[in-house]
Predict the 3D structure of the following.
Amino acid sequence: MQEEIEREDALSLQEEEDLLEALLFSLGRTVSLEEMAICLHMGVDGAELAAERLRKKYEERKGGLLIRKLEGKYQMVSHPKTYDALIRVVKQSRKPVLSDVHLETLSIIAYCQPVTKAEVERIRGVKSDHAVNRLVEFGLIEEVGRLDAPGRPVLFGTTEEFLTRFGVDSLASLPSLPKDLEKLLEEEVTEELKDSLGLEPEKVEEAKEERLEDQKEEPDEEPEEVADE
Protein backbone atom coordinates (compact mmCIF):
# COMPACT_ATOMS: atom_id res chain seq x y z
CA MET A 1 0.00 0.00 0.00
CA GLN A 2 2.83 2.40 0.93
CA GLU A 3 4.60 1.65 -2.36
CA GLU A 4 1.40 2.45 -4.30
CA ILE A 5 1.11 5.82 -2.54
CA GLU A 6 4.76 6.62 -3.25
CA ARG A 7 4.30 5.75 -6.94
CA GLU A 8 1.26 8.01 -7.14
CA ASP A 9 3.14 10.90 -5.52
CA ALA A 10 6.32 10.40 -7.56
CA LEU A 11 7.09 12.86 -10.35
CA SER A 12 7.11 11.66 -13.92
CA LEU A 13 10.39 11.96 -15.85
CA GLN A 14 8.95 14.91 -17.77
CA GLU A 15 7.87 16.66 -14.56
CA GLU A 16 11.37 16.23 -13.13
CA GLU A 17 12.89 17.82 -16.21
CA ASP A 18 10.33 20.64 -16.22
CA LEU A 19 11.13 21.52 -12.61
CA LEU A 20 14.89 21.46 -13.19
CA GLU A 21 14.49 23.58 -16.31
CA ALA A 22 12.53 26.19 -14.32
CA LEU A 23 15.07 26.06 -11.49
CA LEU A 24 18.07 26.60 -13.77
CA PHE A 25 16.37 29.43 -15.65
CA SER A 26 15.12 31.21 -12.52
CA LEU A 27 18.38 31.12 -10.57
CA GLY A 28 20.53 32.03 -13.56
CA ARG A 29 23.67 30.57 -11.95
CA THR A 30 25.29 27.23 -11.34
CA VAL A 31 22.96 24.96 -9.37
CA SER A 32 24.23 22.16 -7.16
CA LEU A 33 22.84 18.63 -7.12
CA GLU A 34 21.80 19.22 -3.51
CA GLU A 35 19.62 22.17 -4.59
CA MET A 36 18.15 20.09 -7.39
CA ALA A 37 17.41 17.27 -4.97
CA ILE A 38 15.50 19.69 -2.73
CA CYS A 39 13.53 20.98 -5.71
CA LEU A 40 12.62 17.47 -6.85
CA HIS A 41 12.14 16.15 -3.33
CA MET A 42 14.42 13.19 -3.97
CA GLY A 43 17.97 11.98 -3.38
CA VAL A 44 21.07 13.47 -5.00
CA ASP A 45 21.58 10.43 -7.24
CA GLY A 46 18.07 10.74 -8.66
CA ALA A 47 18.55 14.48 -9.18
CA GLU A 48 21.75 13.85 -11.11
CA LEU A 49 20.01 11.36 -13.41
CA ALA A 50 17.27 13.92 -14.12
CA ALA A 51 19.84 16.68 -14.71
CA GLU A 52 21.77 14.52 -17.16
CA ARG A 53 18.62 13.66 -19.08
CA LEU A 54 17.75 17.33 -19.37
CA ARG A 55 21.32 18.26 -20.36
CA LYS A 56 21.35 15.69 -23.17
CA LYS A 57 17.95 16.86 -24.45
CA TYR A 58 19.21 20.43 -24.76
CA GLU A 59 22.37 19.20 -26.45
CA GLU A 60 20.49 17.09 -29.00
CA ARG A 61 17.96 19.73 -30.00
CA LYS A 62 20.75 22.21 -30.88
CA GLY A 63 18.74 25.26 -29.83
CA GLY A 64 19.90 28.62 -28.51
CA LEU A 65 20.47 27.34 -24.98
CA LEU A 66 22.59 24.62 -23.42
CA ILE A 67 22.87 23.10 -19.97
CA ARG A 68 26.47 22.72 -18.95
CA LYS A 69 28.00 20.75 -16.13
CA LEU A 70 30.61 22.81 -14.32
CA GLU A 71 32.53 21.19 -11.47
CA GLY A 72 29.60 19.04 -10.44
CA LYS A 73 27.04 21.83 -10.81
CA TYR A 74 24.70 22.66 -13.68
CA GLN A 75 23.95 25.95 -15.40
CA MET A 76 21.74 27.07 -18.26
CA VAL A 77 23.85 29.05 -20.74
CA SER A 78 23.56 30.46 -24.25
CA HIS A 79 24.83 28.30 -27.12
CA PRO A 80 28.20 29.40 -28.54
CA LYS A 81 26.57 29.84 -31.96
CA THR A 82 24.58 32.78 -30.55
CA TYR A 83 27.58 34.68 -29.14
CA ASP A 84 28.15 37.05 -32.08
CA ALA A 85 24.51 38.17 -32.12
CA LEU A 86 24.41 38.58 -28.35
CA ILE A 87 27.63 40.59 -28.32
CA ARG A 88 26.16 43.03 -30.84
CA VAL A 89 23.26 43.67 -28.47
CA VAL A 90 25.45 43.95 -25.39
CA LYS A 91 27.68 46.51 -27.10
CA GLN A 92 24.63 48.69 -27.68
CA SER A 93 23.71 48.60 -23.99
CA ARG A 94 24.60 51.72 -22.05
CA LYS A 95 27.07 50.91 -19.31
CA PRO A 96 28.10 53.20 -16.45
CA VAL A 97 31.31 54.97 -17.39
CA LEU A 98 33.66 55.79 -14.54
CA SER A 99 35.44 59.11 -14.97
CA ASP A 100 38.75 59.94 -13.31
CA VAL A 101 36.78 61.69 -10.56
CA HIS A 102 34.68 58.58 -9.95
CA LEU A 103 37.75 56.33 -9.89
CA GLU A 104 39.59 58.64 -7.51
CA THR A 105 36.62 58.80 -5.14
CA LEU A 106 36.06 55.05 -5.36
CA SER A 107 39.72 54.34 -4.62
CA ILE A 108 39.61 56.46 -1.47
CA ILE A 109 36.46 54.71 -0.25
CA ALA A 110 37.87 51.27 -1.08
CA TYR A 111 41.06 51.81 0.90
CA CYS A 112 39.67 53.90 3.78
CA GLN A 113 36.29 52.24 4.32
CA PRO A 114 34.16 52.64 6.23
CA VAL A 115 34.51 56.35 5.48
CA THR A 116 32.31 59.45 5.50
CA LYS A 117 31.80 61.79 2.55
CA ALA A 118 33.48 64.55 4.56
CA GLU A 119 36.59 62.40 4.91
CA VAL A 120 36.60 61.71 1.18
CA GLU A 121 36.30 65.44 0.46
CA ARG A 122 39.15 66.29 2.81
CA ILE A 123 41.43 63.81 1.05
CA ARG A 124 40.38 64.95 -2.44
CA GLY A 125 40.32 68.62 -1.52
CA VAL A 126 37.02 69.24 -3.33
CA LYS A 127 33.30 68.61 -2.84
CA SER A 128 32.38 65.04 -3.74
CA ASP A 129 28.59 64.91 -3.51
CA HIS A 130 28.08 64.14 -7.19
CA ALA A 131 30.82 61.50 -7.35
CA VAL A 132 29.57 59.71 -4.23
CA ASN A 133 25.95 59.80 -5.42
CA ARG A 134 26.91 58.39 -8.82
CA LEU A 135 28.92 55.57 -7.25
CA VAL A 136 25.87 54.68 -5.15
CA GLU A 137 23.72 54.70 -8.31
CA PHE A 138 26.25 52.44 -10.06
CA GLY A 139 25.98 50.01 -7.14
CA LEU A 140 29.71 50.24 -6.38
CA ILE A 141 29.36 51.74 -2.89
CA GLU A 142 26.63 51.70 -0.25
CA GLU A 143 25.81 52.97 3.22
CA VAL A 144 27.33 50.60 5.76
CA GLY A 145 26.51 52.45 8.96
CA ARG A 146 26.70 55.79 10.76
CA LEU A 147 29.60 57.35 12.62
CA ASP A 148 29.02 57.90 16.33
CA ALA A 149 29.73 61.63 16.12
CA PRO A 150 27.75 64.89 15.90
CA GLY A 151 25.29 64.71 13.01
CA ARG A 152 25.66 60.93 12.71
CA PRO A 153 27.29 61.13 9.24
CA VAL A 154 26.83 58.21 6.86
CA LEU A 155 29.67 55.73 6.49
CA PHE A 156 30.28 54.37 3.01
CA GLY A 157 31.87 51.12 1.92
CA THR A 158 32.23 49.13 -1.29
CA THR A 159 29.76 46.48 -2.48
CA GLU A 160 30.01 42.99 -3.96
CA GLU A 161 29.43 44.62 -7.36
CA PHE A 162 32.67 46.57 -6.82
CA LEU A 163 34.58 43.32 -6.28
CA THR A 164 32.96 41.77 -9.35
CA ARG A 165 33.56 44.77 -11.63
CA PHE A 166 37.22 45.00 -10.69
CA GLY A 167 37.89 41.26 -10.57
CA VAL A 168 38.83 41.20 -6.89
CA ASP A 169 37.99 38.23 -4.65
CA SER A 170 37.95 40.27 -1.44
CA LEU A 171 39.08 43.62 -0.05
CA ALA A 172 42.16 41.87 1.30
CA SER A 173 43.13 41.19 -2.33
CA LEU A 174 43.30 44.88 -3.25
CA PRO A 175 46.78 45.97 -4.36
CA SER A 176 48.82 47.34 -1.46
CA LEU A 177 49.27 51.09 -1.30
CA PRO A 178 52.74 52.62 -1.09
CA LYS A 179 53.56 53.20 2.60
CA ASP A 180 53.78 56.98 2.22
CA LEU A 181 50.38 57.17 0.52
CA GLU A 182 48.81 54.85 3.08
CA LYS A 183 50.17 57.06 5.87
CA LEU A 184 48.86 60.19 4.15
CA LEU A 185 45.35 58.75 3.83
CA GLU A 186 45.39 57.71 7.47
CA GLU A 187 46.46 61.20 8.56
CA GLU A 188 43.77 62.89 6.45
CA VAL A 189 41.03 60.67 7.88
CA THR A 190 42.27 61.32 11.41
CA GLU A 191 42.29 65.09 10.85
CA GLU A 192 38.76 65.00 9.47
CA LEU A 193 37.48 63.11 12.48
CA LYS A 194 39.20 65.57 14.78
CA ASP A 195 38.30 68.83 13.04
CA SER A 196 35.11 68.59 11.00
CA LEU A 197 33.30 66.20 13.34
CA GLY A 198 34.36 67.97 16.50
CA LEU A 199 36.05 65.02 18.17
CA GLU A 200 38.72 65.46 20.79
CA PRO A 201 42.15 64.05 19.79
CA GLU A 202 41.89 61.21 22.30
CA LYS A 203 38.50 60.23 20.87
CA VAL A 204 39.68 59.93 17.27
CA GLU A 205 41.13 56.43 17.48
CA GLU A 206 38.17 55.30 19.57
CA ALA A 207 35.72 56.53 16.93
CA LYS A 208 37.66 54.84 14.14
CA GLU A 209 37.74 51.55 16.01
CA GLU A 210 34.03 51.74 16.87
CA ARG A 211 32.97 52.26 13.27
CA LEU A 212 35.02 49.25 12.19
CA GLU A 213 33.48 47.10 14.92
CA ASP A 214 29.98 48.27 14.00
CA GLN A 215 30.54 47.21 10.41
CA LYS A 216 31.88 43.79 11.44
CA GLU A 217 28.97 43.11 13.78
CA GLU A 218 26.27 44.13 11.30
CA PRO A 219 24.79 40.86 9.92
CA ASP A 220 24.83 40.33 6.19
CA GLU A 221 21.46 40.14 4.50
CA GLU A 222 20.80 37.10 2.38
CA PRO A 223 20.39 38.21 -1.25
CA GLU A 224 17.04 37.35 -2.78
CA GLU A 225 17.13 35.09 -5.78
CA VAL A 226 15.00 36.44 -8.59
CA ALA A 227 14.07 35.19 -12.01
CA ASP A 228 15.67 36.75 -15.08
CA GLU A 229 13.51 39.45 -16.51
Observations:
- The beta strands are 65-70, 73-78, 115-116, 141-146, 154-158.
- Confidence is low (pLDDT under 50) at residues 1-8, 218-229.
- The two ends are 45 Å apart (CA to CA).
